[in-house]
Amino acid sequence: xxxxxxxxxxxxxxxxxxxxxxxxxxxxxxxxxxxxxxxxxxxxxxxxxxxxxxxxxxxxxxxxxxxxxxxxxxxxxxxxxxxxxxxxxxxxxxxxxxxxxxxxxxxxxxxxxxxxxxxxxxxxxxxxxxxxxxxxxxxxxxxxxxxxxxxxxxxxxxxxxxxxxxxxxxxxxxxxxxxxxxxxxxxxxxxxxxxxxxxxxxxxxxxxxxxxxxxxxxxxxxxxxxxxxxxxxxxxxxxxxxxxxxxxxxxxxxxxxxxxxxxxxxxxxxxxxxxxxxxxxxxxxxxxxxxxxxxxxxxxxxxxxxxxxxxxxxxxxxxxxxxxxxxxxxxxxxxxxxxxxxxxxxxxxxxxxxxxxxx
Length: 359
Known about the structure:
By secondary structure, the protein is α/β, with parallel strands linked by helices. Helices cover 43% and strands 11% of the residues. An eight-stranded parallel β-barrel has the order 1-2-3-6-7-8-9-10, surrounded by five helices. It has a two-stranded antiparallel ribbon with strand order 4-5.
C-alpha cells in the first residue's frame, strides 16, 4: 500500500437512505473522495439533509467528502418532487428563444437548491448535440440538435450554476449525441473524423471550457478515427491529447460510471483503473458496487507500487481533486434544515418554472 491518498480519486454510490457502515468505512478507512446519490438514497428533503450531514461529518477531520448527484431536469432528476422540478433541457432550449437568459437563471436556481441541501457537484449539463433521432439515451436531455445552440445555452447554464456555488460537469466528452447505442448496455462506436467532431461534437465542449466548467465527464464510446483500441474514458489520445493539450482543459476529468456495460463487460477493474489513469482520468465513478470501489482503490495502490502507473500521474490527479475541493467545498459545513426549507421550492423558484411553462 502506497503512502498516497489514492482513494481520493474515486467517488462511489451505495444503497439505502442512510450512510451504511460499509459506506462510512469507504470514506474513512479507504479515504474515498466522495459519494454520488441516486433516487434509491433519497426519500424527502429532511432525509437528504440528514444523510448529507452524516456524509459531511464522516470526513470532517480529513479531506471533505465530495457529494454529487445527477440532477439534470426532465427524466434524469434524482430529487424529483423534492427540489423544484425542471423540465428536460430541450424544453429550456425552446423556451430560450423567447427568454435568452433562461438557462443562466435555471442553472442558478438549481444550484441554490442543491447547495442548501449539502451537495457540491451536479453532473450537468449534457453538452451532447442531439444529432441522431435514433439515440436511445440522449434525446431531450440535450438543449438542441444544433451544436452552436447547445454551446450557447450550456455555457449560460454552467455560468449560472457555478456562480451560485455548485460545480457543473459538462458531459459526455467527446460527444454522445450521434450514437444509436446506450453505453449502459453496450459499447457505442462512432466513426467520425476530427473534421466532423470540430464541426459538431466539440463545439459545446469548447464553450464549456470557456465558461470555466469545473469538470468534464468522459463517454464510454469508441471513436476509431481517434483511438481504435480504447473507448474515450480509457483513451490517452482523447483525454490527454485532445481534451487537455488541444482544447486546453485543466479541470477535473471524471469518468462516467465504470460499472456501465460498455466498459465493465470488456475490462477487469484493475485494467480499467490503469488505462483510465494513464489516459488522464482524475476521478472515477463507481455508482453501486462498494466492493468494486474497494477493489479499484486497492488496484490504484498496486499499480503505482509496481510502476505500471507513474507516481507523477496520480500526484497530478490528487492535486486536481484537492484544488477542486478547496474551490467548491472549502470550509466544511453541514446543511441547515431550516435554510433548506426556506429555499427549496420557494415562491421565486416555482414562479420561474411557471414562467417557462406558460411560454
